[in-house]
Design brief:
Number of domains of chain B: 1
Mean pLDDT of chain B: 92
Largest sheet of chain B: 6 strands, mixed
Structural class of chain A: alpha+beta
CATH topology of chain B: Rossmann fold
Radius of gyration of chain B: 17 Å
Largest interface: A-B, 24 and 29 residues
CATH class of chain B: Alpha Beta
Oligomer: heterodimer
Shape of chain B: globular
Strand content of chain A: 15-25%
Number of domains of chain A: 2
Strand order of the largest sheet of chain B: 6-7-8-3-9-10
Helix content of chain A: 55-70%
Radius of gyration of chain A: 32 Å
Distance between the termini of chain A: 31 Å
Structural class of chain B: alpha/beta
Order of helices and strands of chain B: EEEHEEHEHHHEHEHEE
Mean pLDDT of chain A: 88
CATH superfamily of chain B: P-loop containing nucleotide triphosphate hydrolases
CATH architecture of chain B: 3-Layer(aba) Sandwich
Number of strands of chain B: 10
Shape of chain A: elongated
Number of helices of chain A: 14
Chain lengths: 403, 228
């Protein structure tokens, strides 16, 4: 049996390579099928990885109290008159909430940073001393600012790794003065390297200042959100409580709509999962379609192959091949074409994935690759079945006479 | 006991609603180590008889016993096994696989007989040597002359050491010199104990045989022995 298997494989390879162009054209559908499914997998793996690292920056145990929902179907005019989030909410929330572990206000705006002749356009954040509790990043060098520095409006700053690299290179940034919109700040700390948020915005280029100084210098009434850290195992209760606390702070009567939003990373996850389903759906649809088209092509070419080799089938039967042996020979041929096509698709996907990896980190998933190969073999079996069956049942005498 | 025994064999085709009796009540016994020629004009049923003997075709009615066993009740794999191990076919048009070397062509019956790779090569080389093609092992059919191709085909027929060689017009596509070389090989095989069954319409080819069967309209009209 194994000998016949090896022999059939040899015959198949000969047949496939004897008609290189024909085999290639026939197998193109399978190549595209395997390519699309594996590339989709690569893309999703990359997105997963980016998303994971981005989410870790946001923190899963944080409620973000802000004026607007991150994802909502509401029209702009419905939400534009909502009151601002104010700094005094921090103490009110601390007072009323049982779940809030820390509350950190965050203001944000664009600014230009400079050190000597080096300049960078980036985002600056004004916050309080608890900010580090609400993000997952650590301080790599130096320290974060204190409550006193915040209250007194000290001009100190903690900068992202990207800024530190760009301005100071290998030198120690701690104690150096940088200018933020032409105002001098002393660097007291550097954050760990983070990578890009959703692959778009670099978190490493930020600078963090005490809220006191931020408000005094840049804006008193800017856009603000509150990061409220709550116990991970009590997310749902905390969310309910926070709605109640905020409604109380805002003095809303029962029946009035919320005029604030509480966001969670879960919302990102929901949104992200929808995106993933869309990508996977498209990928699978393309794959399915190209496999069906490819499978029909394989079946067609197998009919041709059987026809062309009718005489050979007759000879093989005359010298002792059973129906099963003839059938397995042709099945093997179609499985071989499909497997080679699958491998070619996989190879292309691998090359593409190296290329994609240059733009955002991703890997070709191994299990999916194995499935893709098995899948192309299955296509080979399915589409080779009828032609092989026909070959096996050819009448040996007619086949021997076939010209 | 007869090696091959045909009793009242009919093979009837239905061509366009008309009954055609390709074999019309054939009775024939072939003994071990006979050298038999089946002759007759085209359409006389000699090819059908040949295919019947070679287990490629089954009779419409009648009894065919091969080594005492009823052929018409055998299944596909039993028939294939007989063709593989007991019978060696030699065709007028050689019927070699064009993309395979001489050695590989000869190895194919061994593959179906499930013989190991290493033994296969040895057996195939021996068979090719016995027909004088030891120096043509790795040539493809299109690199060989007609006579050489037929010798490869004979080596293929021989390689499984079958008792019967069925040769259908083995010299039909060859010049007279190559033809007589082929006949010499068949004569030698007969001397070594093989049963040879020839289908031919050439008298000088038939002269090699020791027994001549003449067919006409699906019937045996003559069965004569002759001195070699």
């Amino acid at each position: 049996m194994i000998l016949l298997f090896i022999e059939n494989f040899r015959i198949s390879l000969t047949a496939v390579f004897a008609n290189k162009l024909r085999s290639f054209l026939t197998a193109l559908g399978i190549v595209i099928g395997v390519l699309s499914v594996t590339l989709m997998g690569t893309l999703i793996s990359g997105l997963d990885r980016t998303f994971e690292s981005s989410m870790s920056w946001l923190g899963k145990d944080i409620l973000y109290v802000s004026r607007y929902e991150w994802f909502s179907g509401m029209e702009w005019w419905e939400v534009r008159n909502r009151p601002r989030i104010r700094t005094d909410y921090v103490d009110k929330i601390k007072e009323r909430s049982n779940y809030a572990l820390t509350v950190s206000p965050v203001m944000q705006r664009g600014a230009s940073l400079s050190f000597k002749d080096k300049k960078a356009r980036t985002e600056i954040f004004g916050t309080n001393e608890d900010y580090m509790e609400t993000i997952t990043t650590n301080i790599a060098q130096g320290r974060f600012f204190t409550r006193n520095e915040d209250r007194s409006g000290s001009r100190v700053t903690v900068i992202g790794d990207g800024i530190a690299q760009a301005f100071f290179g290998d030198k120690d940034p701690i104690g150096q003065y940088i200018k933020i919109d032409d105002i001098k700040f002393r660097v007291i700390g550097v954050l760990e390297e983070q990578g890009k948020f959703l692959g778009l915005m670099s978190v490493d280029k930020q600078a963090i200042l005490p809220l006191g100084a931020f408000k005094r210098i840049f804006s008193k009434r800017g856009w603000m959100r509150l990061s409220v850290k709550v116990p991970t195992e009590k997310m749902d209760e905390s969310l309910d409580e926070m709605y109640a606390v905020m409604r109380h702070i805002r003095g809303l009567k029962p029946g009035q709509k919320n005029d604030f939003a509480i966001n969670q990373t879960k919302l990102f996850e929901n949104q992200y999962n929808m995106l993933k389903i869309a990508i996977a759906g498209t990928g699978y649809a393309i794959t399915l379609l190209s496999l069906i088209v490819g499978g029909i092509g394989i079946m067609n070419i197998m009919f041709v192959s059987v026809k062309e080799r009718t005489r050979e089938i007759g000879v093989r039967k005359a010298i002792g091949a059973t129906k099963g042996m003839i059938m397995s020979q042709f099945l093997m041929e179609s499985v071989t074409i499909c497997s080679i096509a699958g491998l070619v698709g996989l190879l292309l996907a691998y090359i593409f994935s190296i290329f994609i990896n240059k733009f955002f980190p991703s890997t070709l998933p191994i299990t999916l690759s194995i499935y893709a190969i098995l899948m192309s073999m299955a296509v080979g079996i399915i589409s080779g079945f009828i032609p092989s069956y026909r070959a096996a049942n050819l009448d040996p005498i007619d086949s021997l006479r076939y010209e | 006991m007869a090696l091959i025994s045909l009793k009242n064999i009919f093979k009837i085709y239905n061509v366009g609603g008309e009954e055609v009796r390709a074999l019309d009540g054939i009775d024939l016994d072939i003994l071990e180590n006979e050298y038999l020629a089946i002759m007759g004009p085209s359409g006389s049923g000699k090819s059908t008889l040949m295919n019947m003997i070679g287990c490629l075709d089954t009779p419409t009615s009648g009894i065919y016993e091969f080594e005492g066993e009823m052929v018409q009740v055998m299944d596909d794999s039993q028939l294939a096994s007989i063709r593989n191990r007991k019978i060696g076919f030699v065709f007028q048009t050689f019927n070699l696989l064009p993309k395979a070397t001489a050695q590989h062509n000869v190895e194919i019956p061994l593959v179906y007989a499930n013989i190991k790779n290493k033994d296969r090569a040895k057996m195939a080389t021996d068979a090719l040597e016995s027909v004088g093609l030891a120096d043509r092992l790795h040539h493809k059919p299109n690199e060989l002359s007609g006579g050489q191709r037929q010798r490869v085909a004979i080596a293929r027929a021989l390689v499984n050491k079958p008792s019967i060689i069925l040769a259908d017009e083995p010299t039909g596509n060859l010049d007279s010199k190559s033809g007589s070389e082929i006949m010499t090989i068949l004569d030698d095989l007969h001397k070594n104990g093989n049963t040879i069954i020839l289908v031919t319409h050439e008298d000088d080819v038939a002269q090699h045989a020791h027994r001549i069967i003449r067919l006409f309209d699906g019937k045996v009209i003559e069965d004569s022995k002759q001195a070699p």
